[in-house]
Design goal:
mainly beta; Glucose Oxidase, domain 1; 4 helices; 2 domains; globular; three-stranded mixed beta sheet
Length: about 200
Amino acid sequence: MLFIRLLPLNSRYTIKYIIGFIFDITIYTDTSPTFNKKRTYMQYNTSELCDFYADLIDVVDPIFCNYGGRGSFAGKVVTLKCFESLGLINELVNIDGTGKVLVIDGGGSTRRALIDLNIAQCAADNGWEGIICYGSVRDVDALESIDIGIQALVAIPVGANNQSIGETDIAINFAGVTLLPDDYIYADNTGIVLSPEALDIETL
C-alpha cells in the first residue's frame, strides 16, 4: 500500500512521503486541530487592476501592512466605526461573511489592538474574505497562519476593551478615500484599491 501523510512542522506545513507497496493507494490527511485547512480563493493583483481600471477605482494611501495568511483578498465592503473597543467586531465576525471584507475605521489608534487571534479565527471560520483595520492588531505570529486576509496599520500587544460602542453600515473616511457599504475592495501586498462596483477580474 502506498500512503501519503500530511504532517505539520511547527506552525508551517510540510508534506512527508512514507511509501510502502502492497496493493493499492491510500491518502491520509492530518485532521488534528493544529492542521489548518486552506480554503480555495482567487488571487488578486492590485497593480494590474490599477492599469486596467484606472478611471474606475480609488487607491488607498499606502499606510497598511499585511498580517493575515492570505497575500491577496477582495470582497464586498462591510463598514464599522469604533475606537479601542471590539464588541461590535466580535458580533460581526460571528455572522456569515462569505464574499465580504470587514473594513474597520478604528480612528487610527496605535494604543490598543482591535484584531487578535480569536477575532481573526472566528472571521475565517465564518467565511470572511478579509479584514482591513484603520487601527492595530496583535498576536502577529498566529495571524499569519490563519486563512484570511488582514491589513492594519501596526501591531501592539495591548488589547482593546469589549464594549459594543460604535456604528455599522455607515460611510467611513480614512487613508484618502471614502468607503461605503457595498463598495468592493481589493488588497494584496502592494496596496489596496476601492471600486463602487465589482471588477471583472477574468478580463485581466
